[in-house]
Design brief:
Layout lengths: L4 E5 L1 H13 L4 H4 L4 H10 L1 E6 L7 E9 L9 E2 L2 H10 L3 E8 L6 E9 L17
Antiparallel strand pairs: 1-6, 2-3, 3-4, 3-5, 5-6
């Protein structure tokens, strides 16, 4: 991805969580606790993957991508498709991207990765746009 930096992969934390589940020190109710809004976001806005859920092994995981940043203004905290990220990286100076993997079957969810995008040129904070000019 163009301008991707400060990449953090949470695979080790994921592996530790799954190990605790299989070892019996964690229960499925502890790790399969996705918020209903996250499940809905995965259903309508998520991007399907080829990887099966590591807990139920019945359904492929879905990635939900969130963007956060001061420059995004009212668009901070929104879900974006991967195809929307590169144009955003050219428009904004810096924003952080979080990718969450979700199983819509058993409610497994885990932060998969995070990284920073943007062209590095600071801009003023985004402003709310009016719905209709009077």
């Amino acid at each position: 991805m163009w301008s991707q930096r400060l990449f953090v992969d949470y695979a080790l934390q994921r592996r530790a969580t799954l190990h605790a589940l299989h070892a019996g020190t964690a229960h499925t109710t502890d790790v399969c606790d996705a918020d209903p809004y996250l499940l809905r976001a995965a259903k309508f806005h998520g991007e399907p993957t080829d990887a099966l859920c590591p807990v139920c092994r019945k359904e492929p995981l879905t990635h939900v991508t969130y963007v956060f940043g001061d420059e995004l203004g009212q668009y901070s905290g929104r879900i974006k498709a991967t195809t929307e990220l590169e144009p955003m990286a050219r428009e904004f100076g810096e924003f952080r991207v979080y990718v969450v993997e979700v199983c819509r079957n058993c409610s497994w969810n885990h932060l998969s990765s995070s990284y920073v995008l943007g062209d590095g040129v600071p801009r003023s904070r985004g402003r709310r746009r009016r719905a209709a000019e009077e």
